[in-house]
Design goal:
77 residues, mainly beta, five-stranded mixed β-sheet
């Protein structure tokens, strides 16, 4: 079943952001890992995942209607 999420990619991952990110189609029951692979983002480039403002992991399952934020590793100086 097709569902939609609101997708936010931050910092260096913004380059992978699709035009339809505000209403991005997913298959209900799709994992975050499958989503990241479908977007072409290398898994090593993903450090933090938030679903509806709550920290999640790559094995989390999306059903539709969620807000998903993905962050790369960030270095400071």
């Amino acid at each position: 079943m097709v569902a939609h999420i609101e997708l936010k990619l931050f910092a260096s991952l913004k380059a992978y952001l699709p035009q339809e990110a505000e209403r991005f189609p997913i298959t209900s029951g799709e994992s975050v890992e499958a989503l990241i692979k479908r977007l072409g983002i290398p898994l090593d480039d993903v450090k933090l995942i938030f679903i509806d403002g709550i920290r999640a992991d790559i094995s989390s399952v999306l059903w539709g209607g969620e807000r998903v934020g993905v962050f790369p590793p960030v270095g400071g100086g």
